[in-house]
Amino acid sequence: EEATGNGQTGMSQIGFQLQQTKLFKGFSETLLAELAAITEEKTYKQSEVVYREGEKYQHWLGILESGSISVSISNGAASEQSSDSSSRGLIGTIEVGGLFGELAALGIRE
Question: What digits encode the pLDDT tens for the residues 49-61?
Fold first, then answer.
């Protein structure tokens, strides 16, 4: 079994992070390990747009490890960007451990 910095055995750090979210809480370690195996880590600069609502390629799920993401509306479409911006169209903020992109990733919304 693999020992990790999260105090768990047999589960990767990514699997542990997934398990801490409301969406994946209660999933088996086996399933979390499978999900972790297909994950990819990305880093965004402050104020960089993570994605815009309706983008065809946006079928992935994000878990925020650090910082915050501002969810805003610009030109009638929602977008999420990594920053603490004071955008006039701000409709919400995602904090550390929060999920984003889950509706599109699960096929609930394009």
Answer: 887 776 765 667 7
